[in-house]
Specification:
Number of helices: 6
Number of domains: 1
Order of helices and strands: HHHHHH
Strand content: under 5%
Distance between the termini: 7 Å
Number of strands: 0
Helix content: over 70%
Length: 164
């Protein structure tokens, strides 16, 4: 896999983490479990354990449900923002471990992507709700689909890039 491909995919999984903090690790755990990413013999080997993807799936579903709650804190609030940075960095590091790349670079790119996804997703959602005069949930649901679909596409692209 080229350095550019790795950098793009680590940044993109971070963007997903910025949109939905637990969707990115869920997709990475499933990718590890089914062998799309090879984390055996790395610090991230636990991601391929049979139970891990299910735990992350339950957490991600909980996040998606909570996102519909009008009282949920904004993703830009400090605790949420930091959690998204950690999630993005974690996912970038897992891809780095799988691809034999620098963990520091993976963490940085994943966290950078998470910052982009958090801020960009927030501003896009607010502007779309205002511009289209629709309830927040009308934008939140498509955003959920983009995050989930995007996360699995990134994992599939990572696998394809490694196989080449």
């Amino acid at each position: 896999m080229s350095t550019t491909a790795f950098a793009c995919l680590a940044l993109c999984i971070g963007i997903v983490a910025g949109l939905r903090a637990l969707t990115a690790p869920m997709a990475i755990a499933w990718a590890a479990r089914v062998g799309w990413i090879d984390v055996r013999h790395t610090w991230a080997a636990f991601l391929a354990h049979p139970v891990t993807p299910w735990i992350f799936t339950a957490l991600a579903i909980g996040e998606l449900v909570n996102d519909q709650n009008p009282k949920a804190p904004a993703r830009t609030a400090a605790p949420s923002f930091v959690f998204r940075l950690v999630s993005g960095g974690f996912c970038g590091a897992a891809l780095a471990a799988s691809g034999g790349r620098s963990l520091v670079v993976g963490i940085f790119l994943g966290a950078l992507g998470a910052a982009i996804g958090t801020l960009g997703g927030y501003h896009a959602r607010v502007r779309l709700v205002r511009a289209l005069h629709v309830p927040d949930s009308a934008i939140a649901l498509p955003e959920d689909l983009i995050a989930v679909g995007g996360a699995f596409l990134i994992a599939a692209f990572f696998r394809a890039a490694v196989v080449r």
